[in-house]
Amino acid sequence: MNKLTITTPSDREIAMTRAFDAPRHLVYQAYTKPEMLKRWMGVHNGFELVVCEIDLRVGGTYRYVWKAHGGMSMGMGGVYQDIVKEEKIVSTEKFDESWYPGDAVGTVTFTEAAGRTTVTTTVLYASKEARDGVLKSPMAEGMGAGFDTLEKLLALLHPM
Amino acid sequence: MTATRVSHNHKVMQTSSHAESTRLDATFAALADPTRRAILARLAGGEASVNELMAPFSMSQPAISKHLKVLERAGLVSRGHDAQRRPRKLEAQPLAEATEYLQRYREYWEASYAQLDAVLEELKAIEKADKSTKRKK
């Protein structure tokens, strides 16, 4: 299985990389077509993506709402800032009931090599505090590169 | 694009007990030092005596023992049964707690991406079928 890598490239960012055994135009489709997104993004553990509206153009908005079988729902949305078809999507993102300060900006890039596509998602938060709030880890309190280190330690403990 | 927080928020909303947060503080303080992290990484491969742990570091035994004490107080390291060697061993539980949030973030995306894999397989199959139909025409 393709491995998911999570890193913190700077104080205000979280980055995730994952390869997929599919050409780029298909991965891009799965990321930008509501009927596709509804089938994979966050739809596990009893959650459904019940609203998925996408106006894929610079200045256009998107909105996602997830609903749990128990009735709880959560919404988020934002504005597209930059779009390069099949290469890059940059958008702001904010949760309806955000628990971290400020807007975040997400950049998703798609690169293809030998028929496989690597997707890198980088989210830049308004502050380090906001980023750490997302990870909700006390590692900010003096751990520095703790995120990567914990990842490595965890990999040793639970080889994946 | 970071729906992670859907699941993450659930966790955040659960207030952790004071004892839990104190323990986490101790764990993270212990993890804040590169030598101690290296010791844990070594112990993840199996228990080791103080002398064995010292080998890769240019450090005196008292210095290493001091680091081990911090790790022991944080509950990350314990002493094995062999009275002679007094091997140290890794205690995985506090580390697992410390990495729980990170784990949730990871699990959330791994689950989503596994479903994306399935969607992509389907799209590939559809595209392949389309192409062969076109070729026939």
Set out the fold topology.
The complex is a heterodimer of chains A (160) and B (137).
Chain A: E1 5-7, E2 13-20, H1 24-32, H2 34-37, E3 47-54, E4 61-68, E5 73-84, E6 88-95, E7 104-113, E8 116-124, H3 128-135, H4 146-157
Chain B: H1 4-13, H2 18-31, H3 34-44, H4 50-54, H5 61-73, E1 77-79, E2 88-90, H6 92-98, H7 100-136
Antiparallel strand pairs in B: 1-2
Helix pairs in contact in B: 1-7, 2-5, 2-6
Distance between the termini of chain B: 40 Å
> Rg of chain B to the nearest angstrom?
24 Å
> In CATH, what is the homologous superfamily of the domain at 19-128 in chain A?
START domain
Alpha-carbon distance between the two ends of chain A: 10 Å
Which structural class do the helices and strands of chain B define?
mainly alpha
Average pLDDT reading of chain B:
78
Subunit arrangement of the protein: heterodimer
Please bin the fraction of helical residues of chain B: over 70%
Choose one word for the global shape of chain B.
elongated
Known CATH architecture of the domain at 19-128 in chain A: 2-Layer Sandwich
Low-pLDDT runs of 5+ residues of chain B are 1-16
Q: Helix segment count of chain B?
A: 7
Determine the CATH topology of the domain at 19-128 in chain A.
Alpha-D-Glucose-1,6-Bisphosphate, Chain A, domain 4
What is the top-level CATH class of the domain at 19-128 in chain A? Alpha Beta
Instruction: Give the SSE string of chain B.
Output: HHHHHEEHH
Task: Please give a quick description of this structure.
The complex is a heterodimer of chains A (160) and B (137). By secondary structure, chain A is an alpha+beta fold. Helix content of chain A is 21%, strand content 41%.
